[in-house]
Amino acid sequence: MILSIVKLIHAGGADTASRLLYKILGFDNVVFLLSAILSYASMRYERMSVNLEDMADTMFIVGLICMTAASLVLTFEML
Asked: Which residue windows are transmembrane per the record (predicted)?
């Protein structure tokens, strides 16, 4: 959704803020995917459940921080 908004705002070429936003959101997608994979793995493997779930929680928080950073970039880009 955020990418669609950015594309509507900048129908032309991408400036520095847009490139930064795309990089943050791309990294954020990978972080959330890793969080989901680790969470799933923690349910499947009882022996390593606690460690995997802790890593999944950490990745999720990192993803939320990246999403907040992306929204700040988008907000200040629109001003």
From this structure: 20-43, 55-76
